[in-house]
User: Which sequence fits this backbone?
């Protein structure tokens, strides 16, 4: 085995380099040196080298040649440690890396038990101060906190809270905790509360961009969005498109849990212009969340019928709408392998008031208003 | 008794001076056509700029947009133009209308859980000052809600566009509609209408001392999934009835 390490005695005595038998090589290197050189490597009684010198043992090599029992009987534990050092058998190992401790604060009480949420919030407010201060000192913010309630029945109830972005703001977390505890039922009286950060993230300043006019307001925008998300007033969504023939299944809205609104745009002005050119304004289809049933009057055109008037049955108004032009049918069928077969004939129609709407007829000859262009 | 009118006369002697005083003391009361200084939020549709008093959507003001066709297309273009110039825009969609070809790189799209939460989102985003354009769709503000939103827009300096039928507190009133006879069709082999190619949108903009209209032709994005090799043909595999 080849080891790739080397070590140096502090009194500039020797350097032991790698080799096949590191311990034997180290012992050879140490052998000619006086025993006193080992005293600096361990906390050993300094009287021992003098005692050894009294019996004629002055070098590390002479000490290493003795038996462990002979040393142990005469010089005790310190003597054995010195003997091991002389034989290069010191059992020192690099200290193991300690697991990273995330900020945590707790408080327990025994004289009474709490049931009132407001009094718990008073305690949590104090604990939160410690945790947020610790996070701020590390330049981090918590993304998830866990509240652990020690209950009077000797059990523990845990409640996890999440924020839209990593933050060390005591005010933000307190608002989240207050809103969350309103809907939480703690099963018994509380005799202690522990607050710990479970997931943390760096809170660092964003690199400035001279082309980004929104850079100056990035922090304010992010704070506002995070606050609104944390208040559970709604979601921020993005669109994932599919190749499904049915329009309502072609786009899937996905909720974004955390949002970064700091970076506004591409730094390349040419790329921005290209984006504008590629995305020229156009009328796009707006779909109803669910198609509205419609009563449709049709007329025949060669081998098919087409709508000439429809009434949105689902809508409360229910006013008949005349159709001046109807293109179609565009027939779509499929879904047999998915277990949900569909058959639709789509018509896009211009109404008398100028709207362009999308109607379809299913396999049961029922008509639906699916959406419009806007 | 006679000293007071004399003092007033010394302050304001002409209509021009009165206007200047009002502009200085009450900037919000100044009609949009006379507002200068700050650049408007771009529309993204060059043909419409001359119809708007400042060439775009006024910052810090409420614009009431009566949607009768084309509003989504124009406002999406405005959001994209805003983003392209390095500012933020947000689209609060309370109606839940899904557009399968939504531009993901444009505005921040918000789906609020209720009408009142849509207005809360609007107020929060406007007041932050981090958004240049906020569009509220499907949640009509009423009464004091309009006042709060308009005040938030003023504080944050953002252009607020509400798609609504009520124009209270609005500095700008916009109506857009698709002209019924402004469609251009692609005809089929039997001269029947086969697909809509484009549509003409009429936009009318009103503000105190301002009444302009403009027309713009916008293409119509087809809804159907093209499976045929010919890009102009839709999938006509036929159905079994």
Assistant:
């Amino acid at each position: 085995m080849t080891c790739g390490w080397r070590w140096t005695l502090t009194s500039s005595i020797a350097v032991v380099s790698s080799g096949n038998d590191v311990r034997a090589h180290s012992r050879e290197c140490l052998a000619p040196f006086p025993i006193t050189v080992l005293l600096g490597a361990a906390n050993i009684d300094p009287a021992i080298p003098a005692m050894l010198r009294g019996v004629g043992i002055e070098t590390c090599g002479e000490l290493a040649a003795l038996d462990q029992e002979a040393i142990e009987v005469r010089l005790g534990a310190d003597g054995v440690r010195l003997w091991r050092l002389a034989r290069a058998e010191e059992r020192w190992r690099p200290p193991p890396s300690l697991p990273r401790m995330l900020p945590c604060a707790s408080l327990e009480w025994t004289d009474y038990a709490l049931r009132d949420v407001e009094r718990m919030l008073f305690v949590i407010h104090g604990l939160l101060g410690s945790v947020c201060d610790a996070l701020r000192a590390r330049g981090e913010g918590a993304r998830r906190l866990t509240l652990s309630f020690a209950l009077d029945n000797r059990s523990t109830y845990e409640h996890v809270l999440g924020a839209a972005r990593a933050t060390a703001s005591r005010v933000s977390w307190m608002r989240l905790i207050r809103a969350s505890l309103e809907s939480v039922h703690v099963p018994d009286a509380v005799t202690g509360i522990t607050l710990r950060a479970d997931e943390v993230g760096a809170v660092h300043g964003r690199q400035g961009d001279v082309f980004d006019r929104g850079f100056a307001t990035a922090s304010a925008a992010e704070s506002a969005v995070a606050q609104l998300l944390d208040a559970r007033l709604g979601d921020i969504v993005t669109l994932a498109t599919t190749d499904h023939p049915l329009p309502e299944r072609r786009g899937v809205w996905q909720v974004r849990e955390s949002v970064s609104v700091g970076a506004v745009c591409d730094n390349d002005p040419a790329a921005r212009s290209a984006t504008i050119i590629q995305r020229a304004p156009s009328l796009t289809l707006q779909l109803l969340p669910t198609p509205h049933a419609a009563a449709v009057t049709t007329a025949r055109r060669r081998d098919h019928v087409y709508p000439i008037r429809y009434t949105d049955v689902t809508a409360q108004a229910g006013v008949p709408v005349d159709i001046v032009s109807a293109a179609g049918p565009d027939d779509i069928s499929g879904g047999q392998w998915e277990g949900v077969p569909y058959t639709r004939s789509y018509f896009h129609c211009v109404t008398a008031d100028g709207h362009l709407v999308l109607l379809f007829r299913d396999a049961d000859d029922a008509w639906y208003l699916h959406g419009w262009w806007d | 008794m006679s000293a007071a009118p004399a003092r007033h006369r010394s302050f304001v002697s002409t209509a021009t001076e009165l206007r200047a005083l009002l502009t200085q003391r009450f900037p919000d009361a100044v009609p949009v056509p006379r507002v200068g200084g700050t650049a408007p939020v771009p529309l993204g549709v060059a043909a419409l700029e001359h119809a708007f008093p400042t060439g775009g959507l006024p910052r810090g003001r409420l614009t009431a947009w009566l949607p009768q066709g084309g509003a989504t297309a124009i406002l999406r273009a405005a959001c994209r133009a805003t983003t392209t110039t390095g500012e933020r825009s947000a689209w609060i969609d309370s109606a839940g209308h899904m557009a399968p070809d939504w531009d993901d790189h444009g505005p921040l799209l918000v789906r609020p859980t209720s009408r009142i939460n849509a207005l809360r989102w609007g107020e929060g985003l406007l007041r932050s000052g981090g958004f240049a354009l906020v569009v509220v769709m499907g949640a009509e503000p009423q009464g004091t809600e309009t006042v709060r939103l308009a005040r938030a827009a003023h504080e944050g300096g953002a252009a607020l566009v509400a798609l609504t039928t009520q124009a209270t507190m609005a500095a700008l009133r916009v109506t857009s509609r698709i002209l019924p006879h402004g469609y251009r069709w692609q005809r089929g082999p039997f001269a029947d209408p086969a697909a809509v190619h484009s549509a003409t949108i009429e936009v009318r903009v009103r503000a105190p001392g301002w009444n302009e209209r403009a027309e713009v032709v916008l293409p119509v994005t087809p809804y159907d999934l093209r499976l045929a090799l010919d890009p102009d043909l839709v999938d006509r595999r036929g159905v079994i009835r």
About this structure: Chain B touches chain A through 78 residues (CB under 8 Å). The mean pLDDT of chain B is 81.
